Amino acid sequence: MIDLATALAQRPVVLDGGLGTLLEARGNDVTSALWSARVLRDEPDEVRAAHAEFAAAGAEVVITASYQLGYGGAIPDAEVEALLRRSVSVAREAADVVVAASVGPVGALRADGSEYTGAYGLTLDELREAHRRRLHVVAESGADVLAVETIPSLLEVEALALELDGLGVPAFVSVSADSTGFAPGGSRAEALRVAASVSSVLAVGVNCCAPGSVLSALGEAPGIPLLAYPNTGERWDAATRTWHGGAAALADDAPSWVAAGARLVGGCCRSTPADVAAIAAAVG
User: Fold this and answer.
1) How far apart are CA 119 and CA 124, in angstroms?
2) Would you state the pLDDT for residue 100?
3) Which residues bind Zn(2+) (predicted)?
4) What confidence score (pLDDT) does residue 237 get?
């Protein structure tokens, strides 16, 4: 297994792809509000096997199936801690790779599309409280790094930065680049700056966005290692829980992301082990 901080200073590092996408392709039901967390709870061997597929395709970092897991969500609070820890252990058992514990936004727990708007109606202090307990559990779970991902607004980034500061665990922070929560001019750039100001944050960047949004967002980022793992270009309809549109070949654009400073490169929703293998070949 690589030392992530050292590797980021030297070369691009390949992330995995869409875990829920692969689980679905393997025949698992991910249509509920729990998404991949349902499979983690009921069929953890499937999650382990999916992580192993991504690692075999060239992923050096796998992101756990904990994106939809949090307190106050669809899974009873009494079960959340054990499942958060399970998400790390099954990833660890899958392959000798860096394990990144996924920490999704409040919108991921609501499963109503608000992870692309940040329109929660919560204050800064309420957002800090919403994330605090889960962050402390995953910080003690044995993960190598925290993957704070798909954050849709400056306010939620600010809340997470305050909670990460002093937690003492390395993290990378990724914003939802196309979120309407960044509509105020300069707010996305400010969110990336705020995230990068936390001493334990190794990289900042974007995920769960259109591939065409990556370069403009990276151009707003501060001078630390950057990351990029967009969707394949298809559009998610939260009301019908379906995808629409055509898919792009992420590997075609990956070298330009690396040239712009990205050091963690992979795919998000709809990306497959084949996409990861192509990205690894394109940036290796």
Assistant:
1) 13
2) 98
3) 208, 268-269
4) 62
Domain range for 216: 4-283
Q: Structure tokens of 106?
A: 């409040």
Q: What is the CATH number of the domain that holds 120?
A: 3.20.20.330
The count of domains in the chain is 1
Q: Taking the CA atoms of 15, 169, 64 and 67 in sequence, report the sign of the dihedral they define.
A: negative
> Which residues contribute to the annotated binding site?
208, 268-269
Query: Model confidence over 222-270: pLDDT tens digits?
Result: 989 999 999 986 676 656 556 556 667 899 999 999 999 999 999 999 8
Taking the CA atoms of 237, 187, 219 and 200 in sequence, report the sign of the dihedral they define: negative
Residue showing tokens 């600010």: 158
Which of 32-36, 84-88, 102-106 is predicted with the least confidence, judged by mean pLDDT? 32-36
Q: How confident is the model at residue 33 (pLDDT cuts 50, 70, 90)?
A: confident
Q: How many angstroms separate the Cα of 159 from the Cα of each of 14, 87, 210? A: 28, 24, 25
What does each C-alpha distance from 200 to 10, 108, 163 come to in angstroms? 18, 24, 11
Cβ-contact 114, 149 below 8 angstroms: no
User: What confidence score (pLDDT) does residue 111 get?
Assistant: 81
The set of residues, in sequence order, having a beta carbon less than 8 Å from that of 191 and lying 6+ positions away, is 151, 153, 154, 157, 158, 175, 182
Binding-site members for Zn(2+) are 208, 268-269
